[in-house]
Amino acid sequence: MSEENNFDLIIIGSGPGGYVAAIRGAQLGLKTAIVEKDENLGGTCLNVGCIPSKALLHSTEMYHFARHGAADHGIDLTNLSISIEKLMAKKSKTVDQLRNGVKHLMKANKIKVFSGLGSLAGGDKVSVRATGQNIDISGKHIVLATGSSTIELPFLKFDGETIVSSDQAIAFDKVPEKLAVVGAGAIGLELGSVWARLGSQVDVIEFLPAIAPTFDKDVSKMAERIFKKQGLNFHLNTKVTGLKKSKGKHVLTAEKGDKALEFEVDKVLVAVGRKPYTEGLGLDKVAITLDDKGRIPVDAHYKTSAEGIYAIGDVIPGPMLAHKAEEEAVACIERIAGQAGHVNYDVIPNVIYTEPEISSVGITEAIAKEQGIAIKTGKFNFAGNGRAIASDGTDGFVKVIADKSSDKLLGVQIIGKGASELIAAAVTHMEYGGSAEDIARTIHAHPTMSEAMKEAAMAVDGNSIHSA
Ligand code: NAI
Question: I want to staple 69 with a disulfide (CB 3.0 to 4.6 A). Which of 65, 107, 188, 370 is the partner?
Fold first, then answer.
């Protein structure tokens, strides 16, 4: 093998895990290559996930405001219309800009990009297969960052037309009249909101008794109430059973207890989670066996069972979140380089970018109970916050969960406008092992939505100033 194809570090997969790992490797002086099978760098998050969905959420939020909120501000938008074609073009422009950004970062950091399917070929070898060519490269260290892919249900197999995944639901060319969404998690709620704002009749079918079930019960309840008002119809404790054709129409069948339900649909978005992606990766060549959920087992240093091979991101255990993958990327590479990288798994923020947004960090009240941790909680409604009142943001609240005796901050839950940004302060306090009182005694600018976090922290000890 020619010297130019020998690397210190090879990364397979160029999502937020992979490309960040490559950059960190290059920064630390490693001769680095990255292998990507898709046409563009950036993985799921940039190409068909976080970024395009946020672009659509932003555009449709403005449209929703124009239709339902503007008049209240004296803004007359008679003859309002929307072009789905232009909306999608705007989304694509955003994605393109970021794709170019990642490409530029690879070049700036002198990272060699190989286009093609990367698979382990035994030892330190990786073969890159692309149409018409096969290249073998070798790396002292190989990091698997192949991410995840959509999950279909056995009785609802994707056809790309009627039964779709998020990959297609970010790119419909017209507004489906009737959209059923299976799963009320992050994808279901975000994309359900997008199409409801554009005029679809949206039925969200969720297996569990709550929407956004990983969040605090109070948050889920309030979210359900608010999203219902926005036109999303929720069917909880409901199990989808299949799709049939009746009188030329598609009908989704479901069961709620012993009651059979039917939904006439134009499209069904299946959003019931994602699975680790290891297809064609050649794990058998290096004797790596997957766990019972199809994930690559790793140790605390992100080492797999094969010498010199590491794995990070959605393909290993833990929440499937871009920022978790990025953190693991940095920690993994720093450890390879002999440094002491570390990921604090207790302090990973989680966000659903609906309107209002939902965010959390740390444990919920329910988890504290389950784990027998004595807690105290403080809550503050945005309805008591001046900035929220001045900016139509009164829906929602901040809830702070602290250890009963030490006051250590254990978790924060937010539902409200800008919750994705507000949670960062809680994450920082928790990262430094802060207490509820630390937030309560931190000066927050007035008037800002962030004062609700301070007030919720004050409420932990019954000291909130603006609670009625
Ligand atoms: P999810 O795990 O967030 O939610 C799936 C939902 O589907 C759950 O509420 C589950 O109870 C429900 N469900 C499962 N099987 C069902 C069935 N047969 N019938 C009805 N309901 C069923 O998964 P989602 O939304 O597909 O997202 C996939 C991954 O991508 C997650 O790890 C998520 O965190 C991540 N993601 C994160 C986003 C963010 O950070 N804002 C946005 C989109 C995705």
Answer: 65
Model confidence band, residue 133 (pLDDT cutoffs 50, 70, 90): confident
What would the pLDDT profile of 36-45 be if each residue is shown by its tens digit?
999 999 999 9
Distance from Cα 287 to the centre of ligand 1, integer Å: 31
Residue pLDDT, tens place only, 367-403: 999 999 999 999 999 999 999 999 999 999 999 999 9
Angle at 192 (CA atoms; ends 189, 197), nearest 5 degrees: 120
CA distance 176 to 191: 12
Measured from the Cα of 50, ligand 1's closest atom is 42
Atom of ligand 1 lying closest to residue 350 CA = 40
CA atoms of 381 and 416, how far apart (whole Å): 9
CA-based angle 260:233:175, to the nearest 5?
Answer: 110
* DSSP E strand boundaries for 13-97: 32-36
For residue 312, give both structure tokens. 């990070």
Which of 141, 235, 446, 466 is catalytic? The answer is 446
Give residue 53's identity as a one-letter amino acid code: S
Please report which confidence band the pLDDT of residue 137 belongs to, taking 50, 70 and 90 as the band edges. very high
Which CATH number is associated with domain 171-272? 3.50.50.60
Tell me how far apart the alpha carbons of residues 412 and 428 are, in angstroms, rounded to a whole number.
12
Residue-level length of the chain? 468
C-alpha 73 – ligand 1 centre gap (Å): 36
For the stretch 55-108, pLDDT in tens is: 999 999 999 999 999 999 999 999 999 999 999 999 999 999 999 999 999 999
The contacts of residue 58 (CB under 8 Å, 6+ apart) are none
Taking the centre of ligand 1 as the mean of its atom positions, its distance from the CA of residue 272, in whole angstroms, is 5
What does the angle CA 318 – CA 323 – CA 326 come to, to the nearest 5 degrees? 90
pLDDT of residue 2: 82
Closest C-alpha residue for ligand 1 atom 41: 352
Please say if 466 is a catalytic residue: no
Protein residues with CB under 6 Å of any ligand 1 atom = 153, 182-188, 190, 205-208, 213, 239-240, 271-274, 320-321, 351-353
User: Which residues of the chain does CATH 3.30.390.30 include?
Assistant: 347-459
CATH superfamily label, 347-459: FAD/NAD-linked reductase, C-terminal dimerisation domain (3.30.390.30)
CATH code for residues 3-150+275-343:
3.50.50.60
Most informative mutation of 54, 148, 207, 277 for ligand 1 (most atoms within 8 A of CB): 207
- 276 confidence band (pLDDT: 50, 70, 90): very high
Predicted structure pTM score? 0.97
